[in-house]
Design a protein that fits this description.
With 86 residues, this protein is an alpha+beta fold. It has a domain of 37 residues. Helices cover 35% and strands 12% of the residues. The chain contains 2 helices and 2 strands. A two-stranded antiparallel sheet has the order 1-2. The longest helix has 23 residues. The radius of gyration is 31 Å and the shape is elongated.
Length: 86
């Protein structure tokens, strides 16, 4: 009986190489770690919306810290405060 020469499946080889390559790339990414973005220094200004709907920047030194006992504004008061320009 004559044996046929075994030829490895090229599809299996391709899948194994693809999985190995992707696994190695993923593993190296976690080992190397992603480059961390530098932390931006805290800005001295705060953006706030005026009653007219204009976005302005205000220095933090001009803001007064709120007390913990202050009551938050209600949604109805907020809707009344923001007036649409007619």
């Amino acid at each position: 009986m004559m044996e046929t020469p075994k030829q490895p499946s090229t599809r299996k080889k391709f899948l194994l190489w693809s999985i190995t390559t992707l696994g190695t790339a993923t593993l190296l990414r976690f080992i190397k770690g992603e480059t961390e973005k530098p932390i931006q220094p805290k800005s001295n200004t705060v953006k706030m919306l005026t009653q007219e709907g204009v976005l302005v920047e205000i220095d933090r030194k001009h803001l007064v810290a709120a007390d913990k006992n202050d009551v938050k504004i209600s949604i109805d008061e907020l809707k009344e405060w923001i007036k649409k320009q007619s």
